[in-house]
Write a structure and sequence with these properties.
The chain is an alpha+beta fold. It folds into two domains: about 5-290, no CATH class; about 385-519. Helices cover about 35% and strands about 15% of the residues. It has 15 helices and 19 strands. The protein has helices spanning about 40-60, 65-75, 80-85, 125-130, 145-160, 195-200, 205-210, 325-330, 345-350, 390-415, 425-435, 440-450, 455-475, 485-495, 500-519, and strands at about 5, 10-15, 20-25, 35, 95, 110-115, 180-185, 235-240, 255-260, 265, 275-280, 280-285, 290, 300-305, 310-315, 335, 340, 355-370, 370-380. A four-stranded antiparallel β-sheet has the order 15-14-17-16, covered by helices on one side. A three-stranded antiparallel β-sheet has the order 3-2-4. The longest helix has 26 residues, at about 390-415. It is globular and about 75 Å long.
């Protein structure tokens, strides 16, 4: 298969303003009729967004906020984009000739595996050997077209979970959460051009501290030279000081060479498109690039308050994001255990003057357990730009957390004679609680942003959450009159946790804890 350019060849699946689907060459991104990525899978859509953002940040990122706003107001010039991408074209070739996008520079003598291994849900050798691939079967995905292969390969390098001995995780750690600024409406129109949506996430060079590269070489694009391998005795770690910081967008922890010598005809198992260049196999090898000390601009981070532990990226967890997590994705702050740092792109957008635009936060990523993908999560959240309400929202979250703790204890005491010895998975209580109170939290945000006096509104919030918690308790213990429940035990738990005196005692204890922490 001959190499083709990932910049000038139409290969990215997109949706146009009239609803039609087609393929886009990145050099034509300034086309106002292109409104969205139309990938066959949600994870590949996320990869396509990050591919385009990486291109823009490395080629046309403005020097400062003023230059950024010039493009936002005047539009993205097609000629300017063409000229900016031209120096990058040698780095974005894909095919059998070296260098090839996101693949090892040298031939590999590693293990031959199915190209389906690029996808995180595909069962591995151990699952097949143990015959444990019950839900996602082997052999379902065998052939990929070149276009789907590019996105799948890039997606794997972005999220790269644990993969066995020496198979490195991604630059952000395995399975990171990505947060992007989402353009929901511009000048009253919800059908906004794709370039404008992307531009919200392109950061000025001075704010990002990422100047445009003097030369587009292996310091930015690691597949352009021999891999910086990380064997235990002879290898090296790769830090931001040793390469260009823009490599954050193009991390390549996995050593992979696709087999372009054996091509097949048929339909792609992902997009269904017919191709005479279907790929089936690849060679992989361990001890690729081992990234240390990086903070990716599109991912939020946490720093444990205990000394001696460094930054770690936020990762999706079972049940997905809950509204309590929104604050740490929007603003710097602290929870009980961690200092919270939003993605750099979120901090950067707050510096812009955005007229006639309604924006939000789009977060997505896989929940992994080791190398097993348990679920893909995607959330569309409010972007909290009114800084003076953040302390009040944190107080509201603490109030909710206290009520949830009471609810957990009350339900166990109502359900079990030996509440302390009760065993089982009670996480559904937490998931229920945060999901069912989300609308109340959105109303609280709206009221505070529109001038409601904070003390009065938080007093109302405390009462609303307490009443919700008691009602949830009642709904889950007074279920079926024919069930053999211990009504005396239930009423004792209800009296202990959900009377006015219990509410006052809980508030008094919380106040005492707060005062003790302040001292």
């Amino acid at each position: 298969m001959n190499n083709f350019s990932l910049l000038t060849t139409p290969w990215l699946p997109v949706r146009f303003k009239d609803g039609a689907m087609g393929k886009l060459a990145p050099v034509d991104l300034a086309d106002e009729n292109v409104v969205d990525i139309a990938a066959s899978r949600a994870d590949l859509k996320g990869a396509a967004w990050q591919f385009l953002l990486g291109l823009l940040q490395c080629s046309i990122a403005p020097k400062n906020r003023t230059r950024w706003e010039d493009v936002w107001v005047d539009g993205l010039s097609a000629d300017t984009l063409h000229r900016a991408l031209e120096p990058l074209e040698h780095a974005f070739q894909f095919g059998g000739e070296t260098p090839s996008f996101m693949q090892d520079f040298e031939p590999l003598t590693g293990e031959k595996v199915s190209i389906a291994s690029l996808l995180p849900e595909i069962p591995g050798k151990q699952a097949i050997k143990r015959n444990s691939d019950h839900f996602i079967k082997r052999g379902v995905t065998e052939y990929l077209c070149p276009h789907c292969t590019v996105l799948s390969l890039f997606s794997l390098q972005l999220i790269s979970p644990e993969g066995g001995r020496g198979y490195r995780t991604g630059l952000r750690g395995g399975g990171p959460m990505t947060t992007l600024i989402e353009l929901q409406e511009f000048q009253g129109n919800r059908q906004t051009p794709l370039w404008r949506k992307l531009w919200l996430n392109v950061m000025p060079q001075d704010i990002a501290e990422m100047p445009l590269p003097c030369s587009c070489d292996e310091s930015v694009f690691p597949w352009l030279a021999k891999t910086r391998t990380s064997e235990p005795l002879t290898g090296v770690n790769t830090t931001p000081e040793e390469v260009n910081t823009l490599q954050a967008y193009w991390g390549m922890p996995r050593r992979i060479r696709l087999d372009f010598s054996s091509l097949h005809s048929g339909a792609c198992d992902l997009c269904g498109t017919h191709s005479d260049e279907l790929l089936r196999e690849m060679t992989v090898k361990n001890y690729g690039v081992n990234y240390e000390g990086w903070r990716h601009p599109l991912t939020p981070y946490r720093l444990p308050l205990k000394e001696g532990i460094g930054f770690y990226s936020v990762k999706p967890q079972p049940g997905g994001l809950i509204w309590r997590d929104w604050l740490g994705l929007n603003h710097e702050g602290a929870s009980d255990n961690n200092a919270e740092y939003p993605a750099l792109v979120v901090k950067a957008v707050g510096a812009h003057s955005l007229k006639d635009a309604r924006i939000g936060l789009w977060g997505f990523g896989y929940d992994f357990k080791s190398n097993k993908a348990r679920c893909w999560y995607e959330h569309h959240l409010p972007l909290l730009l009114t800084e003076n309400i953040i302390p009040h929202l944190r107080n509201a979250a603490q109030t909710a957390s206290r009520n949830l703790s009471l609810l957990r204890s009350a339900l166990k005491e109502a359900w079990f004679a030996d509440a302390k010895g009760a065993r089982g998975d009670f996480s559904f209580i937490d998931i229920d609680f945060w999901n069912l109170t989300q609308e109340r939290f959105l109303t609280l945000i709206h009221d505070l942003e529109n001038g409601w006096e904070p003390d009065d509104r938080l007093s109302k919030w405390q009462t609303d959450i307490w009443l919700f918690t008691r009602r949830y308790f009642d709904d889950h213990v007074f279920t079926n009159p024919h069930d053999g429940v211990d009504l005396k035990r239930i009423m004792m738990a209800r009296k202990k946790y959900f009377t006015k005196s219990a509410e006052k005692q809980s508030a008094k204890a919380a106040k005492a804890r707060k005062q003790e922490a302040a001292e």
